Amino acid sequence: MAKEPEKQTGGLLPSGFGPVLRRIREEKGLTQKRVGDTAGVHPNTVAKMERSEIEPSWPMVLALAQALGVDCTAFNAAPADEQPAAEEKPAPKKKGGKK
């Protein structure tokens, strides 16, 4: 019998796909049912993906992107308020020493 893959982080997958899927769906004003029907999956499957309980296959990512009206790269983009801050350069050192 095939061994089931171990769950990570208490049953949640670490990819970050789920929260992005939820954010895009909510921004578009769509329900899980509407996205699921358009993408060809059960709304419960959409819910599980949003909770990071399951990962979508590549064909499912494409179907979800089409159902949401976005490019598949949208799932990699973090919203502006989650973008990493620009790295600050250290202040230049003053020349000369203590006298």
TrEMBL record:
Residues 1-20, 77-99 are annotated as: Disordered. It comes from the Bacteria. Gene3D superfamilies: lambda repressor-like DNA-binding domains. It holds the Pfam family HTH_31. SMART domains: HTH_XRE. SUPFAM superfamilies: lambda repressor-like DNA-binding domains. GO terms for molecular function: DNA binding; DNA-binding transcription factor activity. GO terms for cellular component: cytosol. Residues 21-75 form the HTH cro/C1-type domain. Keywords: DNA-binding. This is HTH cro/C1-type domain-containing protein.
